[in-house]
Amino acid sequence: MSYIVTVLWKKKPDEVFIDNKYSRSHTWVFDGGIELAASSSPHIVPLPMSNEFAIDPEEAFIASISSCHMLWFLSIVAGKNYIVEHYEDNAEGILGKDEDGKLAMTKVTLKPKVVFDSKTAPSQEQIEELHHLAHAKCFIANSVKTQITIQQI
């Protein structure tokens, strides 16, 4: 399987570029046609060279892990005949230095809050096992060396 995303950036006419003060705003175009405003994080490259209202790679990385986990969790839960009414994850990522001293997303904490139909709700122990299974199946989690933890809310 192959996945394609187009990343577009263009220098503004008034930018010198080699002074390193160019805009980091760019566009992500996905194969379904959706376009998203993207930028470096203002925590990394200061405003106005970054766009605080755009998605930055660090946020996208965290969202990708969270989304993959959620999709596997929902699939596994549905297969066990539990009904999920609502799923919300306020995931958090930590940018720090890895074992080689390089900046990296060293830790992502998923904080899923899952509301089940009251008639089909699994036990707390079963929910923990369902999250464990989802984590084990998540393609994104299996692709990164970032420490990923799950903190149920």
Task: Name a few traits of the molecule.
three-stranded mixed sheet; three-stranded antiparallel sheet; 2 domains; 153 residues; GMP Synthetase, Chain A, domain 3; 2 helices
The CATH fourth-level homologous superfamily of the largest domain: K homology (KH) domain
Percent of residues in beta strands: 25-35%
Using only C-alpha atoms, the radius of gyration works out to 19 Å
Distance linking N and C termini: 35 Å
What is the total number of structural domains? 2
- Average pLDDT confidence is 96
Supply the number of helical segments: 2
Based on Cα principal axes, name the global outline: elongated
Determine the fraction of residues in helical runs and give it as a percent range: 10-25%
The profile of the biggest β sheet is:
3 strands, antiparallel
Q: What's the number of extended β-strand segments? A: 8
CATH level 1 class label of the largest domain: Alpha Beta
